[in-house]
UniProtKB/TrEMBL annotation:
<protein>
    <recommendedName>
        <fullName>RNA transcription, translation and transport factor protein</fullName>
    </recommendedName>
</protein>
<dbReference type="Pfam" id="PF10036">
    <property type="entry name" value="RLL"/>
</dbReference>
<comment type="similarity">
    <text>Belongs to the RTRAF family.</text>
</comment>
<dbReference type="InterPro" id="IPR019265">
    <property type="entry name" value="RTRAF"/>
</dbReference>
Length: 244
């Protein structure tokens, strides 16, 4: 739990430090005071440095009071964490000029993200992993295969934008309330001789018409998607790349 702070302070064993080991703990406290905190003058550190003394716990308890540590000597982990925090603050204060111009990791990641804002620029369309990934997505989304993997990739993008975005999913999930239908206004076209069967046949016919309308809507969407791919002047299938 102390690894990051120990690493920041250049401790010799940040990964293996064990504060429950009494000898290691006492040596650590001496190192922390000698190298980082330096609250006492050198000549006043004798009792703290005498780690084999029976009175060392008393010396350490006095040290904690002198540095205003809010924890008790029994709360070892909390004490170590607090002392490390103090040491880090003091270390930064001593080396403020060294750290003031450093770039945070988050800012570096933001710069890298900006550089990679156009992922297709450096896309290798001949990479086997790229082809396999596009083919897997096409199969998953039931998109027609094409010799040009960029064409398939663009079809995938169109489908995702139109069907799988948060807005599209929310819109599709909204319940639709049907309007009441007056069956007597719809002519069946034939008579079975039974009023109940005639009514059931009218209902089936209306349901069939609704299915045909949904099918026509899907066909129209597919046509639009294909036209968007074929008519895009920025897609050069012969060169195998996107962009002018």
């Amino acid at each position: 739990m102390f690894r990051r702070k120990l690493s920041a302070l250049d401790y010799h064993n940040p990964a293996g430090f064990n504060c429950r080991d009494e000898t290691e703990f006492r040596n650590f406290i001496v190192w922390l005071e000698d190298q980082k905190i330096r609250h006492y003058k050198i000549e006043d550190r004798g009792n703290l440095r005498n780690i084999h003394s029976e009175d060392w716990p008393k010396s350490f308890e006095k040290y904690m009071k002198d540095v205003n540590c809010p924890f008790k000597i029994q709360e070892r982990q909390e004490t170590v964490d607090w002392l490390l925090g103090l040491a880090v603050r003091l270390e930064y204060g001593d080396n403020a000029d060294k750290y003031k111009d450093s770039t945070p990791d988050g800012a570096k990641n933001a710069d890298n993200a900006a550089k990679n804002a156009e992922p297709l620029i450096n896309l290798d369309v001949n990479n086997p992993d790229f082809k396999a990934g596009v083919m897997a997505l096409a199969n998953l989304l039931q998109i027609q295969r094409h010799d040009d993997y960029l064409v398939m990739l663009k079809a995938i993008r169109i489908l995702v934008q139109e069907r799988l975005t948060q807005d599209a999913i929310a819109k599709a999930s909204q319940s639709k309330e049907g309007l009441p239908v007056a069956l007597e206004k719809h002519i069946l076209g034939f008579d079975t001789g039974d009023a109940v069967i005639n009514e059931a046949a009218q209902i089936l016919r209306l349901l069939h018409i609704e299915e045909l309308r949904e099918l026509q809507t899907k066909i129209n969407e597919a046509i639009v998607a294909v036209q968007a791919i074929i008519a895009d002047p920025k897609t050069d299938h012969r060169l195998g790349k996107v962009g002018r």
